[in-house]
Amino acid sequence: MPDDHASSCEPSPIAAGEREIAARRVRVLLPLPLPETLDYLAPEGSGPPEPGSFVRVPLGQRSVAGVAWDGAGDDLPEERLKPIIETLATPRLQPELRRFVERVAAYTMAPPGTVLRMTMSVPEALQPPRPKRLCAASPTGLAALTGATTQTRLTPARRRVIEILSNSPPLPASELVRLAGCGSGVLRDLIAAGLVEERFAPAEPPEIPPPNWRLSGPALSLDQSTAAQRLVDGVDAGVFGVTVLDGVTGSGKTETYFAALAAALAAGRQVLVMLPEIALGAQWLERFRARFGALPAQWHSDMSAAERRDTWRAIAAGRARVVVGARSALFLPFPELGLIIADEEHDPSYKQEDGVIYHARDMAVLRASLADIPIILVSATPSLETLVNVARGRYRRVALPRRHAAAELPAVRLVDLRRERIERGHFLSPPLVAELTATFEAGEQALLFLNRRGYAPLTLCRACGHRFQCPSCTAWLVEHRFTGRLLCHHCGHAEPVPACCPECLAAGALVPCGPGVERLLEEVTERFPAARAALMVSDLLSGPRAAAELAQAMTERRYDLLIGTQIVAKGHHFPMLTLVGVVDADLGLAGGDLRAAERTYQLLHQVGGRAGRAEHKGRVLIQTWMPDQPVMKALAAGDRDRFLEAEAAARRHAGLPPFGRLAALIVSAGDPETCEFTARALSRAAPQLPGVTVLGPAPAPLAVLRGRHRRRFLVKTGRDVRLQPILRDWLSRVRTTGSARIQVDIDPYSFL
Ligand code: ADP
Ligand code: ZN
Question: What is the pTM of this model?
Answer without folding.
Answer: 0.87
